[in-house]
Amino acid sequence: MIYDLTIIGGGPAGIAAGVYASRKRLKTLFITKDFLGQSSVSEGIENWIGTVKISGTQLSKDLENHLKAYAGDIVDIKAGESCEVVHTNTDGTFDIQTNKGSYSSKTILVTTGSARRKLEIPGADRLEHKGLTYCATCDGPLFADQDVIVVGGGNAAFESAAQLLAYCKSVTLINRGSSFRADPVTVAKLSENPKLKIITNAISKEVLGEKFVSGFVYTNNTTGTDVTLSVTGIFVEIGSVPTTYFVKDTVKLDQWNHIMVDPRTQQTSQSGIWAAGDCTDGLYHQNNIAAGDAVKALEDIYVHLTTK
Predict the structure, then answer these.
(1) Is this model's pTM higher than 0.85 or not?
(2) Average pLDDT in the 208-220 region?
(3) β-pair type (170-174, 233-236)
(4) Which of 16, 94, 244, 276 has the largest CB neighbor count within 10 A?
(5) What is residue 154's predicted lDDT score, i.e. its pLDDT?
(6) Among 214, 236, 258, which residue terminates a domain?
(7) 71 vs 28, 58, 65, 123, CA distance in Å?
(8) DSSP secondary structure of 242-271
(9) Structure confidence at residue 81 (pLDDT)
């Protein structure tokens, strides 16, 4: 059979799209490796609108249950499958190859998100989610009145620092180079905050701590000496890797491999394919934004299918 729509990805964007697809009675194939978005590892999410506080695990379960409650015989859920490649057919339809099977679809919505680039130094893996985190928005409030550091020098690092300055005792930003990738105006504005300290030419070396983070070691790239900071929180913002490998030859990607979309509709460069969430070149990436963009895409997909 040929599906009206195939949704690839099981995070907030994919779930939102799946629920709307069911309500619009679009025969939909839903492909996802699992239902765990990036926030699933967070102990407490306080910015999911409508819920004061929820764990990342519970949010993932709630989203999965919401989709399954509406799926019925409309949304065919293929959990445990990973998309390997998408082929465009001459008639405008698509063939989707996963690790377990092949499917055909009239349209596709990509919602596969991205994975945070990991800090690969001793202690980082062991103390992840024990003081070392990759989401200031999700976990920042847990470190109120504490000394923390942010690793990174791009806009995301400075945006995280700005959030943390609102409630942390102090924030130290660690940048491996002498210059920043962040916008100069952002750097200048935050540099005026007396609670922020910026350290450049600093190479991350080790995360310290037994059960929880207690310190951070970096090497001064100018002098070659090691410096130890006593901190309880480490926020890593050294970039992310969008999960877009399976459409790299099908849609246009930016220099970081994000799928380029029209922000009005979420359409990609390939007619019949839309994308939403962290896998896109959208300016901001958050759970609420991902879900909203996916709903926007679904509205446009519905128009495409019913007026074609």
Answers:
(1) no
(2) 97
(3) unpaired
(4) 276
(5) 87
(6) 236
(7) 9, 20, 10, 42
(8) ES-GGGTTTS-B-TTSPBP--TTT-B-SST
(9) 95
